[in-house]
C-alpha cells in the first residue's frame, strides 16, 4: 500500500481476481429521472462520464427493472429486450474512457411499484403506495428469476462490468426475505430458508448466465428498521447463502423506504451505520461495501482504516462534486463541494417525477446544458450580497473569466446559511461555506465584508454590470401588540442570540419555524453524538429484535422549553416541508413535546401572552416570547435605484423571489446567470 497517499485505504485498488477496481469508492445507485427523459441517455452518459473522469472506482447506475411489472413507475427504465442494449452502450462507452468500472442495478420494485400492475410475495399494500399488488404465483416467481438473469446478460452485452442486484430498501427481494411482507405458505415463504430463496436463486441464475468474470454485487438489507424485519441471525444466514450462490461483493442496505428511522438526511450522524457492515465482516469472506452519510474523504478513510468495510458507497457526495476522488488523491479535500444531505434537489425531485440535481451543485444531471465556457469578453462585475445566490454567481462567473467583486454588509459570507448552520442537524452548512470561501480565494474574487453598498458607491466604481443578491427582510405582521417586548424575529434568535424564555410561541410553521423550534428545543445536537442519536430514533445496536428496532417511546423527551408551533393554514403542520425529510422534522419536534397547532388566527400579543382563535374559540397561550417566522419580503430597494439610474443590473436569489428561503433555487439562479452573462 502507498503510505505517501493522503488517504491510503480509500485510494488503494481492490483486486477481485478477474478484474481490479482502481480505488475503494463506489458511487451508489441514484435514480436521476434522465432514464425516462427524451435524449436522456445522452445526458446520463455525460453525467456518469464526469464522475468517471473525476476518479470514482466503481459506479452503480439507478435502478433498472428486469421486466414491466417490476418498473418503479409506468415509464421507468427497463432492461428486458435486445433493443434496450444500444442506449446503455452510450453510458458504458463514456465511462470506460477512464479507469472506472460500472455496474447496472437491477431493481424489481415489487409492492413499491407506482402502477396498478405491481406484484409482490403477498397481496399486501405498502403504506407509501396507493396501489395494492397481486401476489406472484410460483410460476411467475420462476419467470422473474429468469428475467433477472436475462437482464444481467443484456447488461453484459451493453458493456457493463457487472450488475448490482437490489435486495434491500423494501423492494421485491427484500419483501420476500421478510416475514412482515411475505405471508406465503409454499416453498417461497415461511422459514428464512424459503424467504431468502428468491435472492439466492436470482444470484445463481445470473452467475450461470454471465459467467465467472462479471461483477455481481448483491445489496443486502442489514438493518430493515421495520416491525417484523429480519433478525441478525437471519441476515447473516442470507448473506452467507448469497456469497455461496456466486456474488462478488455484498453492499450494505439500510432501512426500508417506509421505515421511521432517518437513514440519509443531514441530521443523521456521519457514517452512522458502518458498525453493521463491520459486524458482517466476521461472517463473510467476499468484499463488503458500507454506506450512508459518508461525505468526506476523511470519514471514508477512517471507516476503511478501522476495518469496517472493504469499500465505501457514496451516492449524493458524487452529485455534489464529480471530482471528489481526484481532489482526495491530490490532497485537496478543502476544495470538495461537500454533500449536505439535504435531499432537496435529489430525492425530493425524484419523488416528484422531476429530474434530480443537487442544491450545492446545480450542474449535476445538467452536464450538457449548464456549462461555463470562457466568456468572449471579460467584464468587471459587482455582486451585492454574499448569500447562496451571490456566492454561486461569483464563483461561476469568475470561472468564466469575469473580474468579480462581491460585497456584503455582514462580517462573513453566507447570508441565511449562517443562521441555518446553527440549527441542530444542519451542521453540514459549514462545509458549503468553507467550499465557497476557498473558491472565491482561488478564483481571485475580491471579497468586501462589512461593506454595505449605495447607488453612489456602485456608480462611482464604474462596474460593467451589477448583480443584486441582497436577500430578504422578515415580513412584518399586522397583529395587535406586534411591538410588544415579548416579540422577537427569527433573526434575533439565530443571528443575535437574544435570550429566549422557557415558554415560546412560534408564528409560522414553514422551514424557518421548524428550524427555530429545533434550535430552541435541543440542548446539544445529536448529529455529533451517534450513540444518543440511535437511542433517540430507536435503533437497537444489540439487534435483540427483528428489524433492529427498540420499543417505541411514548413519552416526549425532556426539553428545555414548552414550545407552540402555529400556522394559519388548517393543513397538517409541516405539510410544505421536503417530501423525504419533512416527516423527520415533524417526528423530531413531536419527540421533544412541541405542540403543533394548525388553523390559528392571531388576535393579539399582550402581557399575558399570545391570544389566538381556533374554530371560533379564543384562548391565550401563556408564553414568555412570541417568535415571528411568518415569511419574508424581497429586499429590492438597491435594485430599483440601480435600474432607475440606468445601470445594467440583475436580480437573483431571495431579493428576486422570497416566498420561502430557498437555497436550491438561489444557487441555481446564480449559476444560470453566470453561464450567460
Automatic annotation (TrEMBL):
Its cofactor is FMN; [4Fe-4S] cluster. Residues 380-657 form the FAD/NAD(P)-binding domain. One of its GO terms (biological process) is fatty acid beta-oxidation, unsaturated, even number, reductase/isomerase pathway. It holds the Pfam family Pyr_redox_2. Keywords: Flavoprotein, FMN, Iron, Iron-sulfur, Metal-binding, Oxidoreductase. The keyword Metal-binding applies. Residues 10-331 form the NADH:flavin oxidoreductase/NADH oxidase N-terminal domain. GO terms for molecular function: 2,4-dienoyl-CoA reductase (NADPH) activity; FMN binding; iron-sulfur cluster binding; metal ion binding. InterPro entries: Aldolase_TIM, FAD/NAD-bd_sf, FAD/NAD-binding_dom, NADH:flavin_oxidoreductase, OxRdtase_FMN_N. PANTHER family: 2,4-DIENOYL-COA REDUCTASE (PTHR42917), 2,4-DIENOYL-COA REDUCTASE [(2E)-ENOYL-COA-PRODUCING] (PTHR42917:SF2). In the N-terminal section; belongs to the NADH:flavin oxidoreductase/NADH oxidase family. This is NADPH-dependent 2,4-dienoyl-CoA reductase. It comes from Thalassomonas actiniarum.
Amino acid at each position: 500500500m502507498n503510505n505517501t497517499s493522503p488517504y491510503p485505504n480509500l485510494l488503494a485498488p481492490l483486486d477481485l481476481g478477474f478484474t481490479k477496481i482502481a480505488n475503494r469508492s463506489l458511487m451508489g445507485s441514484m435514480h436521476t429521472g434522465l432514464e425516462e427523459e427524451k435524449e436522456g441517455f445522452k445526458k446520463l452518459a455525460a453525467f456518469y462520464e464526469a464522475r468517471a473522469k473525476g476518479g470514482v472506482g466503481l459506479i452503480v447506475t439507478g435502478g433498472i427493472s428486469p421486466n414491466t411489472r417490476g418498473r418503479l413507475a409506468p415509464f421507468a427504465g427497463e432492461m428486458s429486450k435486445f433493443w434496450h442494449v444500444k442506449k446503455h452502450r452510450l453510458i458504458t462507452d463514456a465511462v470506460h474512457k477512464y479507469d472506472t468500472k460500472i455496474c447496472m442495478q437491477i431493481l424489481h420494485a415489487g409492492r413499491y411499484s407506482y402502477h396498478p400492475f405491481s406484484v409482490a410475495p403477498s397481496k399486501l399494500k405498502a403504506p407509501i403506495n396507493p396501489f395494492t399488488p397481486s401476489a406472484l404465483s410460483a410460476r411467475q416467481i420462476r419467470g422473474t428469476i429468469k428475467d433477472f438473469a436475462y437482464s444481467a446478460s443484456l447488461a453484459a452485452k451493453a458493456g457493463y462490468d457487472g450488475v448490482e442486484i437490489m435486495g434491500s430498501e423494501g423492494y421485491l427481494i427484500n419483501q420476500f426475505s421478510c416475514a412482515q411482507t411475505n405471508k406465503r405458505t409454499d416453498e417461497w415463504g415461511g422459514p428464512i430458508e424459503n424467504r431468502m430463496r428468491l435472492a439466492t436463486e436470482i444470484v445463481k441464475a445470473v452467475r450461470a448466465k454471465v459467467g465467472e468474470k462479471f461483477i455481481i454485487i448483491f445489496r443486502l438489507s442489514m438493518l430493515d428498521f421495520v416491525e417484523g424485519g429480519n433478525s441478525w441471525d437471519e441476515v447473516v444466514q442470507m448473506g452467507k447463502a448469497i456469497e455461496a450462490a456466486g456474488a462478488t461483493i455484498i453492499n450494505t442496505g439500510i432501512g426500508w423506504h417506509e421505515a421511521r428511522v432517518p437513514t440519509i438526511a443531514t441530521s443523521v450522524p456521519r457514517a452512522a451505520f458502518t458498525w453493521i457492515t463491520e459486524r458482517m465482516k466476521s461472517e463473510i469472506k467476499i468484499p463488503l461495501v458500507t454506506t450512508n452519510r459518508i461525505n468526506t474523504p476523511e470519514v471514508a478513510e477512517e471507516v476503511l482504516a478501522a476495518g469496517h468495510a472493504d469499500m465505501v458507497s457514496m451516492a449524493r457526495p458524487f452529485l455534489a462534486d464529480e471530482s471528489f476522488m481526484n481532489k482526495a488523491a491530490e490532497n485537496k479535500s478543502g476544495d470538495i463541494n461537500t454533500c449536505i444531505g439535504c435531499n432537496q434537489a435529489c430525492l425530493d425531485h425524484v419523488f416528484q417525477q422531476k429530474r434530480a440535481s443537487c442544491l450545492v451543485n446545480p450542474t449535476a444531471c445538467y452536464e450538457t446544458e449548464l456549462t461555463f465556457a470562457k466568456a468572449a469578453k471579460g467584464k468587471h462585475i459587482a455582486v451585492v450580497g454574499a448569500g447562496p445566490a451571490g456566492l454561486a454567481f461569483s464563483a461561476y462567473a469568475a470561472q468564466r473569466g469575469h473580474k468579480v467583486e462581491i460585497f456584503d454588509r455582514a462580517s462573513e459570507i453566507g447570508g441565511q446559511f449562517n443562521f441555518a448552520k446553527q440549527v441542530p442537524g444542519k451542521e453540514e452548512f459549514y462545509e458549503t461555506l468553507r467550499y465557497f470561501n476557498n473558491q472565491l480565494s482561488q478564483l481571485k474574487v475580491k471579497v468586501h465584508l462589512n461593506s454595505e453598498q449605495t447607488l453612489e458607491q456602485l456608480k462611482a466604481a464604474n462596474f460593467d454590470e451589477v448583480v443584486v443578491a441582497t436577500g430578504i427582510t422578515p415580513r412584518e405582521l399586522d397583529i395587535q401588540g406586534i411591538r410588544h417586548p415579548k416579540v422577537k424575529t427569527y433573526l434575533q434568535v439565530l443571528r443575535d442570540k437574544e435570550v429566549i424564555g422557557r415558554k415560546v410561541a412560534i408564528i409560522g410553521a414553514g422551514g424557518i419555524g421548524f428550524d427555530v423550534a429545533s434550535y430552541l428545543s435541543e440542548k446539544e445536537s445529536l448529529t455529533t453524538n451517534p450513540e444518543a442519536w440511535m437511542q433517540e430514533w430507536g435503533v437497537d445496536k444489540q439487534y435483540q429484535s427483528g428489524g433492529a428496532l427498540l420499543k417505541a417511546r411514548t413519552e416526549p423527551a425532556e426539553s428545555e422549553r414548552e414550545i407552540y408551533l402555529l400556522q394559519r393554514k388548517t393543513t397538517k403542520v409541516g405539510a410544505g416541508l421536503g417530501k423525504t425529510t419533512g416527516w423527520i422534522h415533524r417526528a423530531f419536534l413531536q419527540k421533544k413535546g412541541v405542540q403543533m397547532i394548525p388553523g390559528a388566527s392571531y388576535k393579539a400579543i399582550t402581557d399575558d401572552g399570545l391570544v389566538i382563535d381556533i374554530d371560533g374559540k379564543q384562548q391565550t397561550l401563556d408564553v414568555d416570547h412570541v417568535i415571528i417566522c411568518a415569511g419574508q419580503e424581497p429586499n429590492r430597494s438597491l435594485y430599483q435605484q440601480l435600474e432607475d439610474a440606468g445601470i445594467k443590473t440583475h436580480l437573483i436569489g431571495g431579493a428576486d423571489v422570497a416566498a420561502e428561503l430557498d437555497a436550491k433555487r438561489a444557487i441555481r439562479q446564480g449559476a444560470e446567470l453566470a453561464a450567460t452573462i
